[in-house]
Amino acid sequence: MGKMSDFFNLTSLETNWRTEILAGLTTFMTMAYIIFVNPAILSTAGMDFGAVMVATCLATAISTILMGIFTNYPIALAPGMGMNAYFAYTVCIGMGIPWQVALGCIFIEGVIFIFLTLSRIRQMIFDAIPQTLRIAVACGIGLLIAFVGLKETGLIVAHPATLVTLGKITTPYTLLSLLGLLITSLFLIKKIKGGIFLGIIITAILGIPLGIVKYRGLISLPPSIYPTLLKLDIFGAFKLGFLTIIFTFLFMDVFDTVGTLAGVGEIGGFIREGKLPRAGRCLFVDALGTVLGSLLGVSTVTSYIESISGISEGGRSGLTSVVVGLLFLISLFFYPFTRMIGGGYEVIPGVVLHPVTAPALIIVGALMFLSITKIDWRDYAEAVPAFLVIIIMPLTFSIANGLAIGFVSYTVIKLLSGRGREVSLLVYLLSIFFILKFAFIK
Questions:
Q1: Which pLDDT tens digit goes with each residue over 262-318?
Q2: Whether pLDDT at 113 is above 60
Q3: pTM for the full model?
Q4: Domain limits at 302?
Q5: What total of structural domains would you count in the chain?
Q6: What would the mean pLDDT of 371-381 be, rounded to a whole number?
Q7: Is the per-residue pLDDT at 341 higher than 80?
Q8: Is residue 387 part of a domain?
Q9: Confidence (pLDDT) at 383
Q10: Cα separation, 335 vs 347, whole angstroms
Q11: Is the pLDDT of residue 240 over 70?
């Protein structure tokens, strides 16, 4: 125990084993919903639910433990919300691209991210992208995730005249989802640790006596990971038409990671002279996690902002991350429970609802709007491109379309208003790339 304490510098960080373990439990509770939600999302793309669940736990556990050991920060990693939605709903379902090719795109993106981290180009890219677009992308993804959640509750349904309309609220599935949304919201309002996770569990329990959720047991051996393990198609991802997809994955991964590290660093008091010590190590582990995840069979792995919950409980060292990783490994043996919670229900042909996990999607979507006030809505040269990014993503069911319209509109509006010097060279190049994509790449 003494050697472990010295390894994680517990004394100099003014923490102890009890505090670090409690912090790890807290972080796990706040992000454990990914065990249920990620397989539910990726299975819509044709991936095996059980294999994705195992891959999610393994990718999360290995990446988080590496983060703790290699950087000594209480930062956890897992397949990112938003990136899994882009993977499933935009790339696989919307574009009709096989999930094996999409995993190949993520592998390539992860390798590029490693290169950018080692070469320090990553900082140059981050500094070049306008803050307005970075914030708008996060909000747009949140709106898309919330839209998916509302769709999977049955609250929003298709309509031939208006595209979408209000569904039948009185159906048992929708009522259960709304009840789960209310319960989860109350947990968050009361600042109860693990509110999203607890909301999912209680919603599932309430669904059993209602006959909606079918009890399937609690503990078993983990399902096979073979259906997704090493099934990525790297060569298929090298086709020209997939360059935009790879860039979008890379863009989301880079800025989600940098934003998370900045937030965690500020709240944890890790920032020194405006910089996060060992930031390069954090980015390297994050990028390595993405590559590992693609090999196992999950979408982009990234640092989780939920790590702040453990830091708020006193977590200051990598021991917190190690505890989180071990808890995800233990979760592998609760597959029947996970399948019961994350499984979908085809109420009518072609319409699959996820009444237990859908409320979590809506809540996560709302939480991604926290930074929207940082956009200067009084400056229309900033506000209009930001609004287009946010609204285009859910209405076209595509994060890539929102990104493209945002870059192009930002550049054109700034240029025509005489403020072209405010746009960096890299943003001009990206805008030209997106225009060529719309013109020539279908």
A1: 767 776 778 787 677 888 889 899 999 999 999 999 999 998 877 877 887 788 899
A2: yes
A3: 0.75
A4: 2-368
A5: 1
A6: 90
A7: no
A8: no
A9: 95
A10: 24
A11: no
Q: What percent of the chain stands above pLDDT 90?
A: 35
Q: Of 67, 80, 1, 36, whose CA–CA distance to 315 is shortest?
A: 67
Instruction: Report the pLDDT value the prediction gives residue 429, as an integer from 0 to 100.
Output: 85
Apex CA 31: angle with CA 272 and CA 86, to 5°?
A: 95
Total Cβ atoms within 10 A of residue 373: 9
Is residue 391 included in any domain, yes or no? no
Q: Which amino acid is at 319?
A: L
User: Is residue 317 one of the residues assigned to a domain?
Assistant: yes
Does some domain include residue 386?
no
